[in-house]
Amino acid sequence: MTLPTDLKEKACLVTGASRGIGAAVARALGRCGAHVAVHYRTGRGQAAAVARDIEEAGGRAVLLQGNIAERGVAERLVRETAEAFGGLDILINNAGDLIARYRVEETTDEFFDQQVATNIQPVFAACRAAIPLMRQRGSGVIVNVSSVAARTGGGGGSSLYASAKAFVATFTRALAKELAPERIRVNAVSPGVIDTPMQDRTTPREQLQVAVGQIPLRRIGVPEECAGTFLYLCSEESSGYVTGQNIEVNGGLVMP
What we know:
Blueprint (H helix, E strand, L loop, with lengths): L10 E4 L5 H12 L3 E6 L3 H13 L3 E6 L7 H13 L4 E4 L15 H11 L1 H17 L2 E6 L3 H4 L6 H21 L4 E8 L5 H6 L2 H10 L9 H11 L1 H4 L6 E4 L7
Parallel strand pairs: 1-2, 1-4, 2-3, 4-5, 5-6, 6-7
């Protein structure tokens, strides 16, 4: 992969960066010489390993802990990133979770609220907190993480997760229109079936095997195969005229 040259020393926050796609993106930014706030909820050891890789690659890293499902945490992470690096250039809203699979008639109000608190509210809150900091810089980049489930409705028992990710995709377009005059670009990445800890925890192996049969590339993706798309969207040199877009990384599972 040819790395962008304009991300060196950019101040970045990657939520959910201790493993999976978030970790791959944080490491990729580190290889570009970026300054990366590595957010984690419980996996401090994994996050520390990501931070070491970033610094060994020539970037800077700081660890930030917090449960994004708790009100105020997303804003704190944005603030602490700016304090650590002297500002904020790039926000990657990666953290989120399918949590569990329930049919609609089995879904409680409490689980509904949990999905919103995990997959919708933190994205909105982090973006809201980042805008004034990016305005101070005169530009900025926000990359939100949607999902192929937003297009397909998801697999069995994932209606709320799929709907939450559809919110993220629509919110991305709306915010991109709002912020374009201020040179703040907002885009989304929609991963397909990717080999991540969340996938392992929530998707039965037989369901994954069925999914492979539906993917034209005939395999599940890995987190590192998503990282290049994030770097492209973060780089002004590569994508300075790209905003309000939702880029699919799904092996052909869903095509526009």
